[in-house]
Amino acid sequence: MTIRLYNTLSNAIEELQPSDGEALRIYACGPTVYDYGHIGNFRTFLHVDLLRRTLELFGTKVKHVMNITDVDDKIIRNAAAANIPIGEYTPRFEKAFFEDLDALSVEHPEVIARATEHIDEMVKLIQCLAEQDLAYKTEDGSWYFRIAGFPAYGKLSKKDFSGITDGARVDVDEYDKDSARDFALWKAPKPGEYHWQTPLGPGRPGWHIECSAMAMEYLGDNFDLHAGGEDLMFPHHENEIAQSESATHKPFARHWFHVRFLLVEGRKMSKSEGNFYTLRDLLLKGYKASAIRFLLTSVPYRQQLNFTFEGLGAETGAVERLRTFYQRLKNTQWPENCNATAIQEAASTAKGKFLAALANDLNTAEARAAIFDLVRTVNAAADAGSLCRSSVAAVLDTLADFDRIFTVLEDNDSHWTRFALEWAEKEGRLDEASPEVRAQISLSDSQIDALIEERNQARRTRNFARADAIRKELLEKGILLEDSKEGVRWKRK
RNA sequence: GCACCGGUGGCGAAGUGGCUAACGCGCUGGUCUGCAAAACCAGUAUUCGCGGGUUCAAUUCCCGCCCGGUGCUCCA
Predict the structure, then answer these.
(1) Residue A55: exposed, middle, or buried by beta-carbon count in 10 A (0-12, 13-18, 19+)?
(2) Tell me, what CATH number does A160's domain have?
(3) In degrees, to the nearest 5, what angle opens at C-alpha A34 toward C-alphas A32 and A40?
(4) What is the count of structural domains for chain A?
(5) CA–C1' span, A92 to B60, in Å?
(6) Stated in angstroms, how far is A279 CA from B50 C1'?
(7) Residue A62 CA to B45 C1' — how many Å?
């Protein structure tokens, strides 16, 4: 199957296939490692993950490059405030970033490229632009890109800059730029600021140049797809196009994939609104990593998602339902023989709808709906006693495809909750963890099993008061018991 | 202010020029259970922001308004 995806550049839905016939080459803008990632960041990374997983499911190989911006104004500022070099400041946030990706079950890109390790490539690119008089040096030693030399400027963000003329100076005094729109390729150091000595003079890279240089380094002058949050469309991606295409005289990325921002409780997420959440904030509040992933991927990437705690609770329940269903299929001894056709057909229909929805511009909402339809049908058949091995196998096969994309069926949640608690303890931030989370983690599996055994004894002697007391005690610590024919199951709420 | 995107049940949302407007969560009743939980069944929007228009027919197309978001400045 081929995926059809909206392309910001052409404003149309297009088929996406590797232009070299081998692997689909993706460049995705990564994090600036100056702080912990927030859920808005992760919505973008999750949808890129969904894209690459879908391509892989459809049999397309992927070569995915992601940059780590490990030098920029905020990093320099924060490192200076901490009185350490930037090279000592950024690693802990880069490490945290990848831990967060793991918690959210995001596949790692094939290539991780750090800006500070590609200064040479950036310098060469700027020199190439300078040779064509598309880059110029100002009096303070900074280099700028001459937008007037790239007539196609604005083609991605659909902005018209034809009114800009050389010499239309705005910030003449401060920057000495030829045009207010010209952007920095290379920034001269302020006194005492960290810098590299290069043929361009001392300084550090502008923000946009790293992505051009590293994308072309690993993927070639032109490649298949470039991804990022919608805010990056302008100026970041527009500037990347200008720099890259000016240097190579070839089209840069063919396809541009932009993920819409999310809202939090109906408002833009911001620190001043008090609705700004990192992944770790949510884990410490007791929300499960899987539910966060499921919620952040529930709404298609071009649609605004309203992230609410009510919604997060709903997704927790939805994930639980899927897991209960999955465990039921796996752990029940189904009869060998039955008329399996109806369920096999339902499984196959669901799979078809699921894949078609993904192929249709990554419509995750429809894809999920197909699976939930199947869950209901199969549960009903199971209750009616008309399920058997061969039909269950077909359902598990469909679920396997579902889980290659959404990865919520296996339960690693308590691991990540524990991880967040340990991190909070190290950081002296344990007071941010909710009491429920701490209580839940305080019980070991064997302690839980012992209490369950005690309750079973009580039930056998029909001492229901004692049995219910134990169940209540566990529930208060976030452990939910379910009595079934196969025995007692428990799960962390 | 200018440009672009969106406004669908209690919440999150899919979708379509005309079939009963998906799906998840919630809620109500029932089945099952020692009681629960899980699961299932039934019910839960005469209606898709508001006003106008086009059409035999609009939630779906067009215009205006209101509201939310984004870009124009660092931002996933």
Answers:
(1) buried
(2) 3.40.50.620
(3) 60
(4) 3
(5) 50
(6) 39
(7) 43
Q: How far apart are CA A322 and CA A344, in angstroms?
A: 19
What's A370's domain CATH number? 1.10.730.10
Structure pTM?
0.95
d(CA A208, CA A244): 10
Claim to verify: residue A252 and residue A373 sit in the same structural domain: no
How does pLDDT run along chain A (493 residues), one tens digit per residue? 899 999 999 888 999 999 999 999 999 999 999 999 999 999 999 999 999 999 999 999 999 999 999 999 899 999 999 999 999 999 999 999 999 999 999 999 999 999 999 999 999 999 999 999 999 999 889 999 999 899 899 899 888 776 544 434 344 444 567 888 899 999 999 888 889 999 999 999 999 999 999 999 999 999 999 999 999 999 999 999 999 999 999 999 999 999 999 999 888 888 888 889 999 999 999 999 999 999 999 999 999 999 999 999 999 999 999 999 999 999 898 998 888 899 999 999 999 999 999 999 999 999 999 999 999 999 999 999 999 999 999 999 999 999 999 999 999 999 999 999 999 999 999 999 998 888 877 888 899 999 999 999 999 999 999 999 999 999 888 899 999 888 899 988 8
Place of tokens 């940059």: A67
- Please name which of A40, A489, A105, A32 lies closest in space to residue A293, comparing C-alpha atoms: A105
Report if CB A479 to strand B is under 7 Å: no
Evaluate if the CB of A78 falls below 7 Å from strand B. no
**A274's tokens:** 């008090």
ipTM of the predicted structure? 0.93
Question: Within window 352-391 on A, which residues have Cβ closer than 7 Å to strand B?
Answer: 363, 365-366, 368-369, 372-373, 375-376, 379-380, 382-383
* A29 and A159, same domain (yes or no): yes
The residue from A259, A288, A308 where one domain ends is: A259
Task: Tell me which of A406, A430, A462 is where a domain ends.
Answer: A406
* Residue range(s) defining the domain that contains residue A367: 264-406
Strand nucleotide closest to residue A159 (CA to C1'): B3
